[in-house]
């Protein structure tokens, strides 16, 4: 058990980090000119209106991050306070850290410009450590979560810059840079923190109750409803509307498929609530990278069907295998909801990139595949681009996911090693998946098993 002094010192560290953020914001962050009280010309006014017009989508993403993710992780019957509370804490921390880390990569005049778009980007970045937290849910301390988030967001920002600005890949909904990175970083940390072979059995509190599963479904519902906003908020022009349409159709197809496959593979052909809570969302991840492309309605639905099937089969067969053979406890099954669907999305992006032409995308090609600007899909001499044809762009899409996996897994292993082998306190087996170590829990709850 933690001593009171150890807990106090831990919270002092958390507050110290917040004060450091305060100093960094004071030194480096300034409002973007559209947010300043000054006479602006017509061009600046249009830019300001565009930023404000994104506020409804910003609200949607806020709901996803703070309510959707939080309640989705309340399925553990004795970990509801921590699931929702630590989600709020981590998201609030990461939003600030992400503004700084991503801002340092795009500084102008030694300062970071702050706008609504920066906050939206930071909100999206908050999903990364929350996904990783899902793989470790109930088995880490707040200080370990803090340390993981600091390292992870720094690596995430660097990888995203590399993928989008150097490799110039298409990743509108963040399936490669957000979902794949968060999932495999978290799995790598979980692998490093895995229990010894004699303690590999499932913990007594590593399970749901009827009530906790209902609360988790609230998270599922919020995520399902608002996922089109998550995927489309950064899309430009008509691509934004396509992103909404494709995401919705993929989610719908994944939901129907998840129900059917769950009934087919589960005990006595009954529906499994784990599949309904998670696999129904896999379509939103699987279509993320390609959501603004010309998939056609049939393409979006096909991606959703594949994602729902793969996700349910992963929960039913792959997750138990990983636990039994690698001692890898993926508490929320992020590999099945975020990891494998993100790989599907990356493969789909390579396929659709290989078929992209100026004739299809017209002027939108510059926004979607900027490295192909001026080509007709086969020419290599271009005006203002990087000399790519469609086949080269497809290769870069695959290269982008490969580099993301290397950085995420490598970074996760290093972070896990720091958490395991340094002075960080690791929870014991009988301390896993329960709130009472960090929260004031009603006495009646403490008496229940």
UniProtKB/TrEMBL annotation:
Domain Ammonium transporter AmtB-like: 21-433
Gene Ontology biological-process annotations: ammonium homeostasis
MF GO annotations: ammonium channel activity
Predominant subcellular localization, coarse grouping: membrane
Subcellular location: Membrane
Keywords, alphabetical: Ammonia transport, Glycoprotein, Membrane, Transmembrane, Transmembrane helix, Transport
Transmembrane regions: 12-29, 79-99, 145-164, 176-195, 207-227, 247-266, 301-318, 339-359, 396-419
InterPro entries cross-referenced by the UniProt entry: Ammonium/urea_transptr, NH4_transpt_AmtB-like_dom, RhesusRHD
Keyword Transmembrane in annotation: yes
One cellular-component annotation, GO: plasma membrane
Membrane topology: Multi-pass membrane protein
Family designation: Belongs to the ammonium transporter (TC 2.A.49) family. Rh subfamily.
Protein name (record): Ammonium transporter Rh type B isoform X2
Species annotation: Drosophila kikkawai
């Amino acid at each position: 058990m933690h001593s009171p002094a150890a807990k106090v010192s831990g919270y002092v560290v958390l507050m110290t980090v917040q004060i450091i953020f305060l100093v960094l914001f004071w030194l480096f962050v300034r409002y973007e000119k559209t947010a300043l009280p000054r006479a602006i010309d017509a061009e600046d006014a249009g830019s300001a209106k565009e930023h404000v017009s994104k506020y409804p989508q910003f609200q949607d993403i806020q709901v996803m991050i703070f309510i959707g993710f939080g309640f989705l992780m309340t399925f553990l019957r004795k970990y509801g306070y921590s699931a929702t509370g630590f989600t709020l804490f981590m998201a609030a921390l990461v939003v600030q850290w992400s503004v700084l880390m991503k801002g340092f990569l795009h500084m102008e005049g030694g300062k970071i410009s702050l706008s609504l778009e920066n906050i939206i980007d930071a909100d999206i970045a908050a999903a990364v450590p929350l996904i990783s937290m899902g793989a470790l849910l109930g088995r880490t301390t707040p200080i370990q979560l803090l340390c993981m988030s600091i390292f992870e967001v720094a690596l995430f920002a660097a990888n995203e810059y590399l993928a989008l600005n150097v490799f110039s890949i298409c990743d509108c909904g963040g399936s490669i840079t957000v979902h794949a990175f968060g999932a495999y970083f978290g799995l790598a940390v979980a692998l490093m923190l895995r229990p010894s072979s004699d303690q590999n059995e499932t913990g007594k509190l590593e399970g749901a109750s009827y009530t906790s599963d209902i609360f988790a479904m609230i998270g599922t519902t919020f995520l399902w409803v608002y996922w089109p906003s998550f995927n489309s908020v950064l899309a430009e022009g008509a691509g934004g509307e396509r992103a909404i349409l494709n995401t919705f159709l993929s989610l719908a197809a994944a939901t129907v498929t998840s129900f059917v496959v769950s009934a087919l593979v589960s005990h006595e052909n009954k529906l499994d609530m784990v599949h309904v809570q998670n696999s129904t969302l896999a379509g939103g991840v699987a279509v993320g990278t390609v959501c603004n492309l010309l998939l056609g309605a049939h393409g979006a639905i096909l991606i959703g069907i594949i994602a729902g099937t793969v996700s349910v089969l992963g929960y039913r067969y792959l997750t138990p295998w990983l636990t039994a053979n690698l001692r890898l406890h993926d508490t929320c099954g992020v590999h099945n909801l975020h990891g494998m669907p993100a790989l599907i999305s990356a493969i789909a992006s390579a396929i659709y990139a290989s078929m992209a032409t100026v004739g299809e995308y017209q002027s939108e090609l510059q926004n979607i595949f900027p490295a192909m600007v001026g080509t007709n899909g086969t020419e290599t001499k271009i005006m203002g681009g990087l000399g790519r044809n469609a086949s080269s762009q497809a290769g870069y899409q695959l290269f982008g996911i490969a580099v993301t996996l290397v950085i995420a897994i490598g970074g996760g292993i290093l972070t896990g090693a720091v958490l395991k082998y340094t002075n960080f306190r690791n929870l014991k087996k009988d301390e896993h998946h329960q709130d009472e170590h960090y929260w004031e829990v009603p006495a009646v709850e403490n008496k229940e098993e």
